[in-house]
Amino acid sequence: GIIILDFGSQYNQLIGRRIREMGVYSEILPFNTPLQDILAKQPKGIILSGGPSSVNAENAHLVEKELYEQGIPVLGICYGMQLTAHLLGGKVNKGEKGEYGKAHLEIVKESSLLKGVTQNSIVWMSHFDEVGALPAGFELNAKSGVIASISNEDKKIFCVQFHPEVSHTEEGGKMLENFVFGICDAEKNWKLTNYIDKTVEEIREKVGDNKVILGLSGGVDSSVAAVLIHKAIGDQLTCIFVDTGLLRKDEGQKVMDNYGEHFHMNIKMVDAKERFLSKLAGIDDPEQKRKIIGNEFIHVFDEESHKIEGAKFLAQGTIYPDVIESQSVNGPSAVIKSHHNVGGLPEDMEFELLEPLRELFKDEVRKVGEELGIPHHLVHRHPFPGPGLGIRVLGAVDADKVRILQEADDIFIEELYKNDLYEKVSQAFVVLLPVKSVGVMGDERTYEYTAVVRSANTIDFMTATWSRLPYEFLDTVSSRIINEVRGINRVAYDISSKPPATIEWE
Ligand code: XMP
Protein backbone atom coordinates (compact mmCIF):
# COMPACT_ATOMS: atom_id res chain seq x y z
CA GLY A 1 0.00 0.00 0.00
CA ILE A 2 0.85 3.66 0.37
CA ILE A 3 2.38 4.98 3.60
CA ILE A 4 1.54 8.48 4.74
CA LEU A 5 3.97 10.02 7.19
CA ASP A 6 2.11 12.28 9.55
CA PHE A 7 3.56 15.72 10.25
CA GLY A 8 0.40 16.91 11.93
CA SER A 9 -1.75 18.39 9.17
CA GLN A 10 -5.48 18.40 9.77
CA TYR A 11 -5.92 16.90 6.29
CA ASN A 12 -3.89 13.72 6.86
CA GLN A 13 -6.79 11.41 7.41
CA LEU A 14 -8.30 12.78 4.25
CA ILE A 15 -5.23 11.71 2.26
CA GLY A 16 -5.59 8.23 3.70
CA ARG A 17 -9.28 8.06 2.84
CA ARG A 18 -8.80 9.37 -0.71
CA ILE A 19 -6.30 6.62 -1.42
CA ARG A 20 -8.46 3.91 0.06
CA GLU A 21 -11.38 5.18 -2.02
CA MET A 22 -9.24 4.36 -5.05
CA GLY A 23 -9.09 0.77 -3.80
CA VAL A 24 -5.52 1.00 -2.53
CA TYR A 25 -4.54 0.31 1.07
CA SER A 26 -3.09 3.29 2.92
CA GLU A 27 -1.61 3.58 6.36
CA ILE A 28 -0.77 6.69 8.39
CA LEU A 29 2.39 6.55 10.53
CA PRO A 30 4.07 9.14 12.75
CA PHE A 31 6.75 11.06 10.82
CA ASN A 32 9.49 9.74 13.08
CA THR A 33 8.77 6.07 12.41
CA PRO A 34 12.21 4.49 11.83
CA LEU A 35 12.96 4.03 8.14
CA GLN A 36 13.53 0.33 8.76
CA ASP A 37 9.97 -0.07 10.03
CA ILE A 38 8.61 1.82 7.05
CA LEU A 39 10.55 -0.35 4.62
CA ALA A 40 9.43 -3.50 6.41
CA LYS A 41 5.93 -2.68 5.22
CA GLN A 42 7.13 -2.75 1.60
CA PRO A 43 5.27 0.40 0.61
CA LYS A 44 4.57 1.12 -3.04
CA GLY A 45 4.87 4.82 -2.30
CA ILE A 46 5.38 7.25 0.54
CA ILE A 47 3.51 10.50 1.07
CA LEU A 48 4.97 13.17 3.32
CA SER A 49 2.05 15.11 4.70
CA GLY A 50 1.52 18.73 5.52
CA GLY A 51 2.11 20.00 9.02
CA PRO A 52 2.15 23.14 11.10
CA SER A 53 5.89 23.40 11.79
CA SER A 54 8.75 25.00 9.87
CA VAL A 55 11.76 23.12 8.49
CA ASN A 56 13.94 25.98 9.68
CA ALA A 57 12.77 25.66 13.27
CA GLU A 58 15.13 24.31 15.89
CA ASN A 59 13.32 21.06 16.57
CA ALA A 60 11.96 20.69 13.07
CA HIS A 61 10.20 17.43 12.26
CA LEU A 62 12.52 15.58 9.89
CA VAL A 63 12.85 12.19 8.21
CA GLU A 64 15.97 10.15 7.55
CA LYS A 65 17.45 11.41 4.29
CA GLU A 66 17.95 7.82 3.09
CA LEU A 67 14.20 7.66 2.65
CA TYR A 68 14.72 9.36 -0.72
CA GLU A 69 17.29 6.78 -1.83
CA GLN A 70 15.14 3.64 -1.69
CA GLY A 71 13.70 3.79 -5.18
CA ILE A 72 10.27 4.14 -3.58
CA PRO A 73 8.27 7.04 -5.07
CA VAL A 74 7.78 9.97 -2.69
CA LEU A 75 5.09 12.64 -2.79
CA GLY A 76 5.66 15.65 -0.56
CA ILE A 77 2.59 17.74 0.20
CA CYS A 78 2.94 21.28 1.63
CA TYR A 79 5.27 20.79 4.62
CA GLY A 80 6.33 17.55 2.90
CA MET A 81 7.51 19.60 -0.09
CA GLN A 82 9.40 22.08 2.08
CA LEU A 83 10.98 19.22 3.98
CA THR A 84 12.10 17.55 0.77
CA ALA A 85 13.61 20.77 -0.56
CA HIS A 86 15.33 21.38 2.76
CA LEU A 87 16.81 17.89 3.12
CA LEU A 88 17.98 17.61 -0.48
CA GLY A 89 19.82 20.92 -0.61
CA GLY A 90 17.21 23.45 -1.72
CA LYS A 91 16.10 26.46 0.23
CA VAL A 92 12.95 27.21 2.19
CA ASN A 93 12.05 30.81 2.98
CA LYS A 94 9.83 32.20 5.62
CA GLY A 95 6.74 33.41 3.76
CA GLU A 96 5.97 37.09 4.11
CA LYS A 97 2.35 36.66 5.03
CA GLY A 98 1.36 33.10 4.36
CA GLU A 99 -1.15 32.00 1.78
CA TYR A 100 -4.54 30.49 2.57
CA GLY A 101 -7.26 29.59 0.13
CA LYS A 102 -7.64 29.19 -3.58
CA ALA A 103 -4.92 29.76 -6.15
CA HIS A 104 -4.56 29.06 -9.87
CA LEU A 105 -2.07 26.46 -10.98
CA GLU A 106 0.13 27.55 -13.87
CA ILE A 107 1.83 24.49 -15.26
CA VAL A 108 5.30 25.29 -16.56
CA LYS A 109 6.42 21.79 -17.40
CA GLU A 110 4.24 18.73 -17.06
CA SER A 111 5.44 15.96 -14.71
CA SER A 112 4.12 12.42 -14.25
CA LEU A 113 2.26 13.81 -11.27
CA LEU A 114 0.57 16.62 -13.20
CA LYS A 115 -0.13 14.51 -16.27
CA GLY A 116 -3.46 15.49 -17.83
CA VAL A 117 -4.07 18.34 -15.38
CA THR A 118 -5.50 21.41 -17.11
CA GLN A 119 -3.90 24.84 -17.05
CA ASN A 120 -5.09 27.26 -14.40
CA SER A 121 -7.12 24.79 -12.43
CA ILE A 122 -7.86 25.79 -8.86
CA VAL A 123 -5.71 24.44 -6.05
CA TRP A 124 -6.06 24.88 -2.28
CA MET A 125 -3.20 26.51 -0.43
CA SER A 126 -2.56 26.63 3.27
CA HIS A 127 1.03 27.46 4.16
CA PHE A 128 3.37 30.01 5.62
CA ASP A 129 6.87 29.00 4.47
CA GLU A 130 7.67 28.46 0.80
CA VAL A 131 10.37 26.86 -1.31
CA GLY A 132 12.85 29.52 -2.46
CA ALA A 133 15.44 27.45 -4.34
CA LEU A 134 15.14 23.98 -5.87
CA PRO A 135 17.41 21.13 -4.80
CA ALA A 136 19.87 19.88 -7.44
CA GLY A 137 18.26 17.49 -9.91
CA PHE A 138 14.80 18.98 -9.48
CA GLU A 139 12.80 20.93 -12.01
CA LEU A 140 10.00 23.41 -11.68
CA ASN A 141 6.65 22.02 -12.83
CA ALA A 142 4.10 24.60 -11.74
CA LYS A 143 3.71 28.02 -10.20
CA SER A 144 0.82 29.76 -8.46
CA GLY A 145 2.48 32.95 -7.34
CA VAL A 146 4.77 30.72 -5.30
CA ILE A 147 6.60 27.60 -6.45
CA ALA A 148 3.69 25.18 -6.53
CA SER A 149 5.15 21.91 -7.80
CA ILE A 150 8.62 20.48 -8.37
CA SER A 151 9.92 17.03 -9.17
CA ASN A 152 12.86 14.79 -9.79
CA GLU A 153 11.46 12.27 -12.30
CA ASP A 154 14.54 10.02 -12.21
CA LYS A 155 14.32 9.57 -8.46
CA LYS A 156 10.49 9.58 -8.53
CA ILE A 157 10.25 12.41 -6.05
CA PHE A 158 7.27 14.76 -6.53
CA CYS A 159 6.23 17.76 -4.51
CA VAL A 160 3.27 20.09 -4.33
CA GLN A 161 2.83 23.16 -2.17
CA PHE A 162 -0.98 22.93 -2.31
CA HIS A 163 -3.25 20.22 -0.93
CA PRO A 164 -4.40 17.76 -3.62
CA GLU A 165 -6.46 15.83 -1.07
CA VAL A 166 -9.01 18.55 -0.34
CA SER A 167 -12.03 18.87 -2.59
CA HIS A 168 -11.32 22.54 -3.36
CA THR A 169 -8.33 21.40 -5.40
CA GLU A 170 -10.24 20.75 -8.60
CA GLU A 171 -7.94 18.16 -10.11
CA GLY A 172 -6.44 16.86 -6.87
CA GLY A 173 -8.03 13.46 -7.43
CA LYS A 174 -6.33 13.12 -10.77
CA MET A 175 -2.96 14.03 -9.26
CA LEU A 176 -3.32 11.47 -6.48
CA GLU A 177 -4.33 8.85 -9.05
CA ASN A 178 -1.31 9.76 -11.15
CA PHE A 179 0.85 9.21 -8.10
CA VAL A 180 -0.76 6.04 -6.82
CA PHE A 181 -1.25 4.23 -10.14
CA GLY A 182 0.94 5.98 -12.70
CA ILE A 183 4.02 6.49 -10.55
CA CYS A 184 3.76 3.91 -7.74
CA ASP A 185 2.00 1.25 -9.81
CA ALA A 186 -0.02 0.29 -6.74
CA GLU A 187 -2.53 -2.53 -6.95
CA LYS A 188 -6.23 -2.13 -6.34
CA ASN A 189 -6.63 -4.70 -3.61
CA TRP A 190 -8.36 -2.82 -0.82
CA LYS A 191 -11.93 -4.07 -0.77
CA LEU A 192 -14.16 -4.03 2.26
CA THR A 193 -15.61 -7.43 1.48
CA ASN A 194 -12.08 -8.82 1.62
CA TYR A 195 -11.61 -6.96 4.87
CA ILE A 196 -14.66 -8.64 6.36
CA ASP A 197 -13.52 -12.13 5.33
CA LYS A 198 -9.98 -11.54 6.51
CA THR A 199 -11.10 -10.09 9.83
CA VAL A 200 -13.60 -12.85 10.50
CA GLU A 201 -10.77 -15.36 10.04
CA GLU A 202 -8.48 -13.38 12.32
CA ILE A 203 -11.11 -13.11 15.04
CA ARG A 204 -11.74 -16.87 14.94
CA GLU A 205 -8.06 -17.59 15.18
CA LYS A 206 -7.40 -15.16 17.98
CA VAL A 207 -10.43 -16.02 20.10
CA GLY A 208 -10.42 -19.80 19.68
CA ASP A 209 -13.19 -21.16 21.86
CA ASN A 210 -12.96 -18.40 24.44
CA LYS A 211 -15.67 -15.93 25.30
CA VAL A 212 -15.81 -12.28 24.32
CA ILE A 213 -17.72 -9.40 25.89
CA LEU A 214 -18.51 -6.09 24.26
CA GLY A 215 -20.13 -2.90 25.52
CA LEU A 216 -22.89 -2.24 23.01
CA SER A 217 -24.10 1.35 22.98
CA GLY A 218 -26.34 1.32 19.92
CA GLY A 219 -23.91 3.71 18.21
CA VAL A 220 -22.32 2.94 14.86
CA ASP A 221 -18.90 1.71 15.94
CA SER A 222 -19.85 -0.67 18.74
CA SER A 223 -22.77 -2.04 16.69
CA VAL A 224 -20.68 -2.78 13.61
CA ALA A 225 -17.96 -4.32 15.78
CA ALA A 226 -20.56 -6.49 17.49
CA VAL A 227 -22.12 -7.76 14.26
CA LEU A 228 -18.71 -8.46 12.74
CA ILE A 229 -17.54 -10.41 15.80
CA HIS A 230 -20.86 -12.20 15.98
CA LYS A 231 -20.43 -13.28 12.38
CA ALA A 232 -17.08 -14.78 13.36
CA ILE A 233 -17.85 -16.49 16.65
CA GLY A 234 -21.63 -16.39 17.15
CA ASP A 235 -22.72 -17.05 20.70
CA GLN A 236 -19.23 -16.85 22.14
CA LEU A 237 -19.93 -13.11 22.08
CA THR A 238 -22.01 -11.47 24.81
CA CYS A 239 -22.92 -7.82 24.44
CA ILE A 240 -23.57 -5.75 27.52
CA PHE A 241 -26.01 -2.91 27.00
CA VAL A 242 -26.22 -0.50 29.92
CA ASP A 243 -29.44 1.46 30.05
CA THR A 244 -28.32 4.56 31.92
CA GLY A 245 -31.74 6.14 31.68
CA LEU A 246 -30.01 8.95 29.79
CA LEU A 247 -30.43 7.48 26.31
CA ARG A 248 -32.70 8.53 23.50
CA LYS A 249 -36.35 7.52 23.63
CA ASP A 250 -36.86 3.72 23.57
CA GLU A 251 -33.18 3.18 22.78
CA GLY A 252 -32.94 -0.01 24.84
CA GLN A 253 -35.93 -1.57 23.11
CA LYS A 254 -34.61 -0.56 19.70
CA VAL A 255 -31.22 -2.11 20.38
CA MET A 256 -32.88 -5.36 21.46
CA ASP A 257 -35.02 -5.36 18.31
CA ASN A 258 -32.29 -4.34 15.87
CA TYR A 259 -29.46 -6.45 17.17
CA GLY A 260 -30.91 -8.99 19.58
CA GLU A 261 -33.90 -10.04 17.46
CA HIS A 262 -32.61 -9.37 13.99
CA PHE A 263 -29.05 -10.66 14.35
CA HIS A 264 -29.80 -13.16 17.14
CA MET A 265 -27.02 -11.76 19.27
CA ASN A 266 -26.66 -12.40 22.99
CA ILE A 267 -27.40 -9.06 24.57
CA LYS A 268 -27.41 -8.58 28.29
CA MET A 269 -29.56 -5.56 29.01
CA VAL A 270 -28.71 -3.90 32.31
CA ASP A 271 -31.34 -1.59 33.70
CA ALA A 272 -29.27 0.93 35.64
CA LYS A 273 -31.62 3.89 35.34
CA GLU A 274 -32.19 4.25 39.07
CA ARG A 275 -28.49 4.05 39.85
CA PHE A 276 -27.58 6.82 37.46
CA LEU A 277 -30.46 9.10 38.35
CA SER A 278 -29.92 8.82 42.08
CA LYS A 279 -26.20 9.56 41.73
CA LEU A 280 -27.04 12.61 39.63
CA ALA A 281 -29.73 14.00 41.91
CA GLY A 282 -29.22 17.68 42.62
CA ILE A 283 -25.93 17.95 40.68
CA ASP A 284 -25.86 20.79 38.20
CA ASP A 285 -22.20 21.23 37.25
CA PRO A 286 -21.59 19.75 33.76
CA GLU A 287 -18.12 18.38 34.46
CA GLN A 288 -19.26 16.82 37.70
CA LYS A 289 -22.19 15.22 35.90
CA ARG A 290 -19.81 13.81 33.27
CA LYS A 291 -17.59 12.36 35.99
CA ILE A 292 -20.47 10.75 37.83
CA ILE A 293 -21.90 9.22 34.67
CA GLY A 294 -18.49 7.99 33.51
CA ASN A 295 -17.66 6.40 36.86
CA GLU A 296 -21.04 4.81 37.25
CA PHE A 297 -20.78 3.35 33.78
CA ILE A 298 -17.47 1.74 34.65
CA HIS A 299 -18.90 0.29 37.86
CA VAL A 300 -21.92 -1.19 36.16
CA PHE A 301 -19.93 -2.58 33.26
CA ASP A 302 -17.32 -4.04 35.57
CA GLU A 303 -19.95 -5.78 37.68
CA GLU A 304 -21.72 -7.19 34.67
CA SER A 305 -18.60 -8.37 32.94
CA HIS A 306 -17.61 -10.35 36.01
CA LYS A 307 -20.91 -12.16 35.88
CA ILE A 308 -19.99 -13.59 32.51
CA GLU A 309 -17.92 -16.57 33.37
CA GLY A 310 -14.69 -17.24 31.56
CA ALA A 311 -14.73 -14.15 29.36
CA LYS A 312 -11.20 -13.65 28.09
CA PHE A 313 -11.60 -10.86 25.54
CA LEU A 314 -13.05 -7.39 25.71
CA ALA A 315 -14.11 -6.13 22.30
CA GLN A 316 -14.23 -2.45 21.48
CA GLY A 317 -15.34 -0.39 18.51
CA THR A 318 -12.06 1.51 18.25
CA ILE A 319 -11.69 2.87 14.72
CA TYR A 320 -8.67 4.06 12.72
CA PRO A 321 -8.98 7.78 13.53
CA ASP A 322 -8.81 6.84 17.25
CA VAL A 323 -5.63 4.91 16.57
CA ILE A 324 -4.09 7.75 14.55
CA GLU A 325 -5.01 10.26 17.22
CA SER A 326 -3.43 8.25 19.99
CA GLN A 327 -0.19 7.60 18.07
CA SER A 328 0.03 11.19 16.82
CA VAL A 329 3.27 12.96 17.62
CA ASN A 330 1.40 16.13 18.40
CA GLY A 331 -0.44 14.28 21.12
CA PRO A 332 -4.08 13.46 20.94
CA SER A 333 -5.82 16.51 19.55
CA ALA A 334 -9.10 17.88 20.74
CA VAL A 335 -11.06 15.52 18.53
CA ILE A 336 -13.45 13.57 20.69
CA LYS A 337 -12.64 9.92 20.40
CA SER A 338 -15.50 7.70 19.53
CA HIS A 339 -14.38 4.97 21.89
CA HIS A 340 -15.16 7.40 24.66
CA ASN A 341 -18.73 7.17 23.55
CA VAL A 342 -19.41 4.29 25.89
CA GLY A 343 -18.02 6.32 28.74
CA GLY A 344 -14.50 4.93 28.81
CA LEU A 345 -13.57 1.65 30.42
CA PRO A 346 -11.11 1.04 33.27
CA GLU A 347 -7.55 0.43 32.21
CA ASP A 348 -6.87 -2.36 34.65
CA MET A 349 -9.44 -4.78 33.28
CA GLU A 350 -7.92 -8.20 33.04
CA PHE A 351 -9.12 -8.79 29.49
CA GLU A 352 -7.33 -9.03 26.20
CA LEU A 353 -8.53 -6.43 23.74
CA LEU A 354 -10.27 -7.26 20.49
CA GLU A 355 -10.63 -4.29 18.15
CA PRO A 356 -11.73 -5.49 14.71
CA LEU A 357 -12.33 -1.98 13.30
CA ARG A 358 -8.92 -0.56 14.18
CA GLU A 359 -7.94 -0.24 10.54
CA LEU A 360 -11.08 1.45 9.26
CA PHE A 361 -12.11 5.04 8.70
CA LYS A 362 -15.64 5.98 9.74
CA ASP A 363 -17.06 5.83 6.22
CA GLU A 364 -15.52 2.38 5.82
CA VAL A 365 -17.04 1.24 9.12
CA ARG A 366 -20.42 2.31 7.74
CA LYS A 367 -19.88 0.37 4.53
CA VAL A 368 -18.79 -2.72 6.45
CA GLY A 369 -21.91 -2.36 8.59
CA GLU A 370 -24.17 -2.23 5.55
CA GLU A 371 -22.28 -5.09 3.95
CA LEU A 372 -23.03 -7.11 7.10
CA GLY A 373 -26.72 -6.35 6.74
CA ILE A 374 -27.18 -3.54 9.26
CA PRO A 375 -29.84 -1.18 7.88
CA HIS A 376 -28.64 2.06 6.30
CA HIS A 377 -30.30 4.34 8.86
CA LEU A 378 -28.54 2.58 11.74
CA VAL A 379 -25.04 2.91 10.33
CA HIS A 380 -25.68 6.55 9.47
CA ARG A 381 -26.78 7.63 12.91
CA HIS A 382 -25.43 10.87 14.30
CA PRO A 383 -22.87 10.63 17.09
CA PHE A 384 -24.28 10.60 20.60
CA PRO A 385 -22.20 11.70 23.59
CA GLY A 386 -21.29 9.17 26.28
CA PRO A 387 -23.01 11.15 29.08
CA GLY A 388 -26.11 11.25 26.88
CA LEU A 389 -29.10 13.28 27.98
CA GLY A 390 -27.29 13.88 31.26
CA ILE A 391 -25.65 16.85 29.57
CA ARG A 392 -28.67 17.81 27.46
CA VAL A 393 -30.94 18.34 30.42
CA LEU A 394 -29.18 21.50 31.53
CA GLY A 395 -28.53 21.74 35.24
CA ALA A 396 -29.86 19.14 37.65
CA VAL A 397 -31.25 15.99 36.04
CA ASP A 398 -34.36 14.13 37.09
CA ALA A 399 -36.56 11.44 35.58
CA ASP A 400 -39.29 13.83 34.59
CA LYS A 401 -36.98 16.18 32.72
CA VAL A 402 -35.35 13.26 30.94
CA ARG A 403 -38.76 12.02 29.83
CA ILE A 404 -39.74 15.47 28.53
CA LEU A 405 -36.47 15.79 26.63
CA GLN A 406 -36.74 12.29 25.14
CA GLU A 407 -40.19 13.08 23.75
CA ALA A 408 -39.10 16.38 22.23
CA ASP A 409 -35.89 14.97 20.78
CA ASP A 410 -37.75 12.06 19.26
CA ILE A 411 -40.11 14.41 17.43
CA PHE A 412 -37.24 16.48 16.02
CA ILE A 413 -35.35 13.41 14.80
CA GLU A 414 -38.49 11.86 13.33
CA GLU A 415 -39.20 15.05 11.39
CA LEU A 416 -35.62 15.20 10.12
CA TYR A 417 -35.99 11.69 8.69
CA LYS A 418 -39.43 12.43 7.28
CA ASN A 419 -38.16 15.50 5.45
CA ASP A 420 -35.02 13.83 4.19
CA LEU A 421 -32.83 16.15 6.24
CA TYR A 422 -31.28 13.74 8.75
CA GLU A 423 -28.23 12.87 6.70
CA LYS A 424 -27.78 16.44 5.51
CA VAL A 425 -26.83 17.54 9.01
CA SER A 426 -24.00 16.17 11.15
CA GLN A 427 -25.61 16.12 14.55
CA ALA A 428 -29.05 17.15 15.70
CA PHE A 429 -30.80 17.02 19.04
CA VAL A 430 -32.93 18.90 21.53
CA VAL A 431 -31.71 20.52 24.74
CA LEU A 432 -33.97 21.14 27.73
CA LEU A 433 -33.42 24.40 29.59
CA PRO A 434 -34.25 24.72 33.28
CA VAL A 435 -36.04 27.93 32.39
CA LYS A 436 -39.80 28.31 32.56
CA SER A 437 -41.73 30.88 30.63
CA VAL A 438 -45.33 31.90 30.27
CA GLY A 439 -47.52 30.72 27.44
CA VAL A 440 -51.15 30.29 26.64
CA MET A 441 -52.89 27.11 25.62
CA GLY A 442 -56.60 27.26 24.91
CA ASP A 443 -57.87 29.58 27.64
CA GLU A 444 -55.22 28.60 30.07
CA ARG A 445 -52.02 30.29 31.06
CA THR A 446 -49.09 27.86 31.02
CA TYR A 447 -45.76 28.14 32.81
CA GLU A 448 -43.44 25.49 31.47
CA TYR A 449 -39.94 24.62 30.24
CA THR A 450 -38.14 25.85 27.17
CA ALA A 451 -36.63 23.45 24.63
CA VAL A 452 -33.83 24.38 22.26
CA VAL A 453 -33.52 22.66 18.91
CA ARG A 454 -29.88 22.26 17.89
CA SER A 455 -28.47 21.09 14.57
CA ALA A 456 -24.86 21.41 13.44
CA ASN A 457 -22.96 20.83 10.24
CA THR A 458 -19.34 19.87 10.54
CA ILE A 459 -16.62 17.69 9.11
CA ASP A 460 -14.45 17.10 12.14
CA PHE A 461 -16.58 18.33 15.06
CA MET A 462 -13.82 20.79 15.95
CA THR A 463 -15.54 23.60 14.10
CA ALA A 464 -19.19 23.66 13.13
CA THR A 465 -21.90 25.88 11.75
CA TRP A 466 -25.59 25.80 12.65
CA SER A 467 -27.69 24.06 10.04
CA ARG A 468 -29.75 26.32 7.80
CA LEU A 469 -32.92 24.27 8.24
CA PRO A 470 -35.97 25.57 6.36
CA TYR A 471 -38.34 27.82 8.35
CA GLU A 472 -41.32 25.66 7.40
CA PHE A 473 -39.59 22.63 8.79
CA LEU A 474 -38.66 24.40 12.03
CA ASP A 475 -42.24 25.56 12.31
CA THR A 476 -43.51 21.97 12.11
CA VAL A 477 -41.00 20.80 14.70
CA SER A 478 -41.84 23.63 17.06
CA SER A 479 -45.60 23.12 16.78
CA ARG A 480 -45.35 19.41 17.27
CA ILE A 481 -43.11 19.70 20.32
CA ILE A 482 -45.28 22.30 22.01
CA ASN A 483 -48.51 20.47 21.22
CA GLU A 484 -47.37 16.94 21.91
CA VAL A 485 -44.91 17.21 24.77
CA ARG A 486 -46.38 18.06 28.14
CA GLY A 487 -43.95 20.26 30.00
CA ILE A 488 -42.67 22.38 27.11
CA ASN A 489 -44.42 25.54 25.95
CA ARG A 490 -41.65 27.30 24.03
CA VAL A 491 -39.08 26.21 21.43
CA ALA A 492 -35.98 28.13 20.36
CA TYR A 493 -33.52 27.38 17.57
CA ASP A 494 -29.80 27.57 18.32
CA ILE A 495 -27.99 29.73 15.75
CA SER A 496 -24.52 29.62 17.30
CA SER A 497 -21.46 28.35 15.49
CA LYS A 498 -18.49 26.54 16.99
CA PRO A 499 -16.28 28.29 17.98
CA PRO A 500 -17.07 30.25 20.03
CA ALA A 501 -20.04 28.11 21.08
CA THR A 502 -19.81 24.31 21.32
CA ILE A 503 -22.16 21.82 19.70
CA GLU A 504 -23.50 20.58 23.03
CA TRP A 505 -24.79 23.04 25.60
CA GLU A 506 -22.85 21.58 28.50
P1 XMP B 1 -18.77 19.98 21.59
O1 XMP B 1 -19.96 20.20 22.45
O2 XMP B 1 -17.49 19.93 22.37
O3 XMP B 1 -18.95 18.51 20.98
O4 XMP B 1 -18.69 20.91 20.42
C1 XMP B 1 -18.17 17.95 19.96
C2 XMP B 1 -18.62 16.52 19.78
O5 XMP B 1 -18.30 15.75 20.93
C3 XMP B 1 -19.44 15.19 21.52
N1 XMP B 1 -19.28 15.28 22.97
C4 XMP B 1 -19.01 14.23 23.76
N2 XMP B 1 -18.86 12.93 23.47
N3 XMP B 1 -18.49 12.48 25.76
C5 XMP B 1 -18.61 12.06 24.48
O6 XMP B 1 -18.50 10.86 24.24
C6 XMP B 1 -18.63 13.78 26.12
O7 XMP B 1 -18.51 14.13 27.29
C7 XMP B 1 -18.90 14.70 25.06
N4 XMP B 1 -19.09 16.04 25.03
C8 XMP B 1 -19.32 16.37 23.73
C9 XMP B 1 -20.60 16.03 20.99
O8 XMP B 1 -21.81 15.30 21.01
C10 XMP B 1 -20.13 16.36 19.61
O9 XMP B 1 -20.35 15.28 18.72
Shape type: globular
Domain module count: 3
Average pLDDT, rounded to a whole number, is 94
Structural class: alpha/beta
Keywords:
nine-stranded mixed sheet; 20 strands; Rossmann fold; 506 residues; GMP Synthetase, Chain A, domain 3; alpha/beta
What does this structure look like?
The chain has 506 residues and is of the alpha/beta class. Helices cover 33% and strands 24% of the residues. The chain has 14 helices and 20 strands. Strands 2-1-3-4-11-10-9-6-7 form a nine-stranded mixed beta sheet, with helices on both faces. It has a five-stranded parallel beta sheet with strand order 14-13-12-15-16, sandwiched between helices. Strands 17, 18, 19 and 20 form a four-stranded mixed beta sheet that branches. Mean pLDDT is 94; it is low at 331-343. The site of xanthosine-5'-monophosphate has 14 residues, from loops. Xanthosine-5'-monophosphate binds at residues 290, 336, 340-341, 383, 385-387, 427, 461, 498, 502-504.
Topology overview:
Elements: E1 2-6, H1 12-21, E2 26-30, H2 35-40, E3 45-48, E4 74-77, H3 79-87, E5 91-93, E6 99-107, E7 121-127, E8 130-133, E9 139-143, E10 147-152, E11 157-160, H4 172-183, H5 192-207, E12 211-215, H6 220-233, E13 237-243, H7 251-263, E14 266-271, H8 273-280, H9 286-307, E15 311-315, H10 320-327, E16 352-354, H11 362-371, H12 376-379, H13 399-418, E17 427-441, E18 444-457, E19 465-466, H14 471-484, E20 488-493
Parallel strand pairs: 1-2, 1-3, 3-4, 4-11, 12-13, 12-15, 13-14, 15-16, 18-20
Antiparallel strand pairs: 5-8, 6-7, 6-9, 9-10, 10-11, 17-18, 18-19
